[in-house]
Amino acid sequence: MKALVAVKRVIDYNVKIRVKADKTGVETANVKMSMNPFDEIAVEEALRLREAGIVSEIIAVSLGVAQCQETIRTALAMGADRGVLVQTDAELQPLAVAKLLKAVIVQENPEIVIIGKQAIDDDCNQTGQMLSALLGWPQATFASKVKISDGHAEVTREVDGGLETVSIKLPAVITTDLRLNEPRYASLPNIMRAKKKPIATTTPEALGVDVAPRLAVLKVEEPPKREGGHKVGSVAELIDKLKTEARVI
Amino acid sequence: MAALVIAEHDNRALKPATLNAVAAAHEIAAGEIDILVAGKDCRGVAEAAGKVAGARKVLLADDAAYEHGLAENLAPLVVRLAGNYSHLLATATTSGKNLMPRVAALLDVMQISDISAVVSPDTFVRPIYAGNALATVQSKDPVKVITVRGTAFPPVEATGGSVPIEAVETTGAAGLSEFVGAELSKSERPELTSARIIISGGRGMQSGDNFHLLEKVADKLGAAVGASRAAVDAGFVPNDYQVGQTGKIVAPELYIAVGISGAIQHLAGMKDSKVIVAINKDEEAPIFQIADYGLVGDLFKILPELADELERRQ
Questions:
Q1: Would A34 be classed as within a structural domain?
Q2: Looking at the predicted structure, is the pLDDT value of residue A237 above 90?
Q3: Where are any strands of DSSP class E within chain A?
Q4: In this complex, is the C-beta atom of A129 within 8 Å of any C-beta atom belonging to chain B?
Q5: Is residue A136 assigned to a domain?
Q6: Model pLDDT, residue B236
Q7: Which residue of B has its CA nearest to A26?
Q8: Which of A27, B59, B131, B173 could cysteine-pair with B127, CB 3.0–4.6 Å?
Q9: pTM to 2 decimals?
Q10: How many CB atoms lie within 10 A of CB B190?
Q11: Does B288 contact A125 at a Cβ distance shorter than 8 Å?
């Protein structure tokens, strides 16, 4: 079966972000960009399913500016077979992303779609669920284990109280949690090989999807700073302070 | 304006997180808040929801299809009820996060995720970039589908109200998904998201076995035990211990971080705690910059001492 993974280009998780002085957003100029870490886990899971003989082809899709090509190349270097870039300079919100992915999926016909549970930039945690709703497919979010057999996926999910297992009919959308796997690094030969793998480019217009944002961002601000930095010298002093100064124990 | 809050429960008890979502709804549509209890044999939950302060009525959808909260079965129910409401809310727990985007997509609206403040009925504040920035967003959609950051809205009273329970027609099973089983962590300690005191361990704990040192202190304080992503990644403890951007968001009265360096993604989950204590052998660890009280030293000496000293002073 074909697998489709969606990979988002985000500010690298090691970068300390800066809010723009005019409060219109977060500074992205001259900032290191990387693949959303949860999407790396999605690519890795697809690769493991291919290595297990379940998946035959992996398509990596990214949506956004031309540089999202680089994110697709990263997925190809990890081992995905080919890429699709939905190129636009417009701001894409999760509902629009889900609609665009749906349009690509209708063309590609994958039986399994794996994507990160959330992107570490907007922290929305929506796209996978929205996509499965639009397709009329089942969803298994926050996956920590995936087993495929007989046209079903048995997925263990990370839930607040522990773990939950569901069985969903394929085709389906699975969103990844961090314990699902540990993504591999791309080797140099694979990075070179990835340069020759095909990436098809399309646009929201060509896919017939209206991507107009539904949420207007009025402003982006820094959160209030926390005043910390006080040290205590001993356990006894710590307990004294917690009892008499902070009064929390 | 009217708001529907989707109750979180396990068919036996109403989860306290529901009260935070009702509190947020109160800031949007006070006096016109209904609570949906969808589950199996969950009339007891509906009765509990009927006592929640500020509710107008409780909608009870009792059907085997809703027993395990499968989003494929629940979303059509919420969508059918949506016509009567301007706002649909749930808490940003794993169940709310699982369900609400599916509802939003079926209604062709954007979800407003994890709101931390209500500015007006169409404008909300939400943290982005692990809480390192706060975005104020205005929704242009006819129905606002919202998940609520529980720690940002003090819960309404669980009792005091008395409102009618109205049974609603159910939508049945979608036939797409089935519940197989659950492995829920059993603990005598309070739940992380509602605990008054939390003590968390990081990579500095060195092993899962060493978490018993934290547990001893937790028992003295009546605290919940949490962990950083590093400790979860290292396999010390299960993921449901995780506090951070990708785990649970907590804001207890007292948060004690032990052997946790203070990565951005961890701070995102706990920096709104009232008092933060950091215990770490590295005095340069970033956690000290936000800690109200920092103690530099070897946690393997400090934790037993802390447990003994708390015992002595009890």
A1: yes
A2: yes
A3: 2-6, 9-11, 33-35, 57-64, 82-87, 112-116, 139-149, 152-159, 162-169, 172-176, 199-202, 215-221, 231-232
A4: yes
A5: yes
A6: 97
A7: B133
A8: B131
A9: 0.93
A10: 17
A11: no
The reply to whether A246 falls in a domain is: no
Question: In chain A, how many domains are there?
Answer: 1
pLDDT at A229: 83
For B313, phi then psi, to 5°, come to: -90, 0
pLDDT, one tens digit per residue, over A169-181 is 999 999 999 889 9
For residue A186, what are its two tokens? 């791309």
Task: Tell which of B8, B20, B94 to mutate to test the A interface (max A CBs under 10 Å).
Answer: B94
**From CA A33, how far away is CA A19, in angstroms rounded?**
16
User: Mean pLDDT across chain B, nearest whole number?
Assistant: 96
Are the C-beta atoms of residues A56 and A1 closer than 8 Å to each other? Answer: yes
Do A115 and A58 contact (CB within 8 A), yes or no?
A: no
Question: Which residue is associated with the tokens 């062709």?
Answer: B108
pLDDT at B96 over 90: yes
Name the residue type at position A38: F
Please count the other Cβ atoms lying within 10 Å of the Cβ belonging to residue B309.
Answer: 18
- Chain centre distance of CA B276: 19
Domain that holds residue A139: 2-221
- Interface residue of B99, B239, B306 to substitute, partner A, most A CBs within 10 Å: B239
In a domain, A229, yes or no: no
- Check whether B191 has a pLDDT greater than 90: no
CATH number assigned to the domain comprising residue A107? 3.40.50.620
Whether cis (ω within 30° of 0) applies to the bond prior to A171 is yes
